[in-house]
Amino acid sequence: MSAETLILTALLLPLAGALGIALAGRAPTLREGITLTTAVALFACVLQLLDPVLAGERPGLTLIEPLPGLPIAFRVEPLGMLFALVASGLWIVNSIYSIGYLRGNRERHQTRFYVCFALSLAATLAIAFAANLLTLFLFYEALTLVTYPLVTHSGTDKARRAGRTYLAILMGTSVLFLLPAIIYVWHIAGTTDFRAGGILPAEMDQGDLGVLLALFLFGTAKAALMPFHRWLPAAMVAPTPVSALLHAVAVVKAGVFTVVKVMVYVFGPERLAGATDWLIALAGFTILAASLVALSADNLKRRLAYSTVSQLSYVILAAALLAPLSLVAAALHIATHALGKITLFFAAGSIYTATHKTEVSQLDGIGRRMPWTMAAFGIGALSMIGLPPAAGFVSKWFLISGVMDQGHWLALGVILASTLISAAYLLPVLYRAFFRPLSAEALAHPHGEAPLPIVLALTLTAAGTLALFLFPGVPLELAQQMLVTQ
Amino acid sequence: MSLSAQLPALQVVLPLLSAPLAVLLRRGWLAFAVVTAAAWAAFAIAIGLWLQVDALPSNGVISYHIGSWAPPWGIEYRIDRLTSFVLVLVSGMAALVLPYSRASIAREIPQESHYLFYAMLGLCLAGLLGITITGDAFNVFVFLEISSLSAYVLIALGRDRRALAASYRYLIMGSIGATFIVIGIGFLYLMTGTLNLADMAARIGAIESSRPVLAALAFLTVGISLKLALFPLHQWLPNAYTYAPSAVTAFLAATATKVSVYVLIRFYFSVFGDSLVFHKLPLPQLMLWLSLLALFAASFIAIFQDNLKRLFAYSSVGQIGYITLGLSFDSVNGLTASIVHLFNHGIAKAAIFLLIGALVVGIARPGAAPPAPTFDRLAGLARRMPLTSFGIVIAGLSLIGVPGTAGFISKWYLVLAALEKGQLWLVGAILLSSLLAVAYVWRFVEAAYFQAPPPGRELKREAPLSLLIPAWVLVLASVWFGLDTSLTLGSAVEVAEGLVRHRP
Amino acid sequence: MIEHFSYIVTVFLMVAGLYVVIARGNLIKKLVGLSIFQTSVYLLYIAPGKLIGGTAPILAPQYGIYSNPLPHVLILTAIVVGIATLALGLALAVRIREVYGTIEEDEILALDHQVEAAQEPRGEQREEKGA
Fold this sequence. Notes:
The structure holds 3 protein chains of 3 kinds.
Chain A: H1 3-23, H2 28-54, E1 60-67, E2 70-75, H3 78-104, H4 110-129, H5 133-151, H6 157-189, H7 206-219, H8 231-234, H9 240-267, H10 269-272, H11 277-296, H12 300-321, H13 324-355, H14 366-369, H15 371-385, H16 392-406, H17 409-435, H18 440-444, H19 452-470, H20 473-482
Antiparallel strand pairs in A: 1-2
Chain B: H1 7-25, H2 28-55, E1 62-65, E2 76-79, H3 81-108, H4 114-133, H5 137-156, H6 162-192, H7 197-204, H8 211-228, H9 236-243, H10 246-271, H11 283-303, H12 308-329, H13 332-363, H14 381-384, H15 386-400, H16 406-420, H17 424-450, H18 465-483, H19 488-501
Antiparallel strand pairs in B: 1-2
Chain C: H1 5-23, H2 27-49, H3 69-100, H4 105-119, H5 124-130
């Protein structure tokens, strides 16, 4: 298949999958079969694009031109390739996990769940491959809308309130800040294409540049930069597979991906020099503040959500440093955090399915009953903290190297402090699980591991986290190619 | 003389003749067949005219002399790109609403007055097409009254007794508006000695700052604003839309106010455009502030409505604010936004009102007349009527201006026009107001998708296909015109450049 | 002053008619006001077209001065439109009288509010009544 066909296939596959799932709604096995097949086919399709991209090709595809000079177009570049690989690869694992989770918890509306999930993947891939800001914005909004039914899945009052927060923050910021920023870029630059080195005219003054950057940053609330991070903890009312793939990988990474892409391909790192100090400070603040909130959260998913908020700001911080090494770190962290965090969420969901426990304080001694789950949790935790032999170490290494290059000591302080805090909110979970005795209440309710699909999925992602530490070749190569100006 | 040369006359005459014919035939289904045939013929003619205009060089005009009397003495029909655009919208809407109305009014209007309904709809269509196509100022008034009088009757056909009061109020306010328009036209006639709009535009330059001309501009503005429901002259609209039969609400929401906007554009940009009169009065500023008030006040009121039809009626008042806001910029991009939104809002709002019509049929007890679509009756609607609910959501997204829907295109140009003026606060205001639309659309989403249906109402009971198909054609159109805009945006840009750029 | 006599009359009728439409609550009186308002427009058109001593435009040697016939024709149309509006307005007033039992605007509003208030709690019974 030619590269254009591959791009189109990658975008249409999840849509076709969604249609198939909707039609197969009455037959659960068939429905899940279609989900898995689609996920595998999608990953294979994305994988086929990898070689040409690594070889320096940038295949593209233009669909339709809704505004004159502003087509809906796609172009695969290294960063998007990396994001697409991570999202589509993890969708396979997540589908396996979803089957176990939804059946184990007897969730309702499973068809709607799988349909919306497939649609969110289509939107995510479109974001990853977007060739200009208009296309990116189109699918950014689409992603918000198709994930809304997943957030409100349970239909309870709490879910509805969370859905309102989700929609209000994500849609509100994107309409109020992101859209005018895009139209402004179009107004002054006459294009919204992503180009290496940036597209903004040279005569633009530094003040306007700062305002525009702020509009983009706050407009992309999916990146959960404070003060627009509240939607992420709210979205944790969703079933765990949603939190795992969407709110640790697809949706939030779409946010930081947009930020990195805008900084590299719209502004260009050279143009931004000196304009990002406030951003480093804000990202640093978000990292620390969110880590502290995570430290005090007893609900496991809430703790992980705030950990995500803090980790996302690592990406923003790395990008804002503008050093080549730190930009590589930003791209790498998108991949490494994804693997680590999805493992952690899988473990949280596994505990919930087996025991219906949601609080950290209830987990005493659980490691003895669920050794696989808690071992995977341990690997994920190492990755979050940034310790070898987990993938998080690789991106943190590049990040610290970048900081050293720039001599930005404040950033270094933030990174070190947050490493300690994240150790402080993740390691006690493991301590409780393995070294505390089982409580009397837990002894009265015996249970074993979660269902097999769940254990299989979290073992796979934990293994992936380790593998990425040992073989970071492909992501690293893609991240480095991102900086090559053509 | 070939038939294609007579298309401009046939465009109006066919629907006009269908009305008395429907009355003479008296039988419900015969009247339906006649008026529907006329509407489809009108639609075909509008497309034919579109192709004829397309074949002309840029900014070309088809001029048709009624009775072969040469203008400026005789009445002239003038068709340019904008005219043709509005003709297609109006006749296309009629062609969709008529097949829909047969099943819809079966529940809402007593059998014996069905033929009157069709006659009035045909008359209203003739009037609206006439306003659009004519190049004669007094003719505009006559057609305006033809369409308005038939619209009053159509609204009064509503089942609720409040429809009568709403129709009466519309009659009073509409007649005042129409009389203001005649006064304005009268002043212009006194000063220029001609009623032909093109001729008037040529002569007005010499006397542009005389007081009667300024007074004429003021009278026309107020009169037309009443007709197009510019805030705060909109009081007739919410009740009229709420209590009229569903098909009527959809048709009027998509066409009547839009044609009034067309008349406003004609007077502002074609007649006064060549002169500087436009800048002698603080009209742009006034328009700007009233539009902003409409955007915020009307959308805000919409959020708190209990009746879904009334909610979207207020939303219409707000959305009209976007159209007039675009006009107030007096720039190519602003006018483009207005013209595109006139079309995009028309189809999205018609889709919503058609679907509400389907919805009330679905929630009615078997054999009973449809109840008002209040929110307590909409609980769990998505499970009972999935297609209807989903259609309302999609069209609602277009009202919000979500990218990928037609509403986004209008919003893009509106923001671009505001940026051109260098008014950043205005950009913020436009975008903030679209979040109000999110609020009222989401009230429907939460009721339909998250509330449990009342006991005994869980069964799936979708509306008949004859209601769903026309509505879904419009729903899909409002997505289609968000992606492929060569038709809408292409012509809007051409029209806007023609109207704004050729000024001295 | 005297040469503007027709305008003074026109403006008086215009304002008086508009005032009656706005200030009166009786539906019939509103229509009377509307008719007066529309009549003023007839004068606005016809008066300037009339020349003192002018006749209809008959091409004959004994007539030298003609009045402009066009405004007369226009207003003939406007009168027809006005009558149609009045007739429809009166018909609506009759229908309103039938269903509400009154033609006072404030009483109609009060009746509507009563109905709405009564329907406020739950809507299920209302449907049976509507049917």
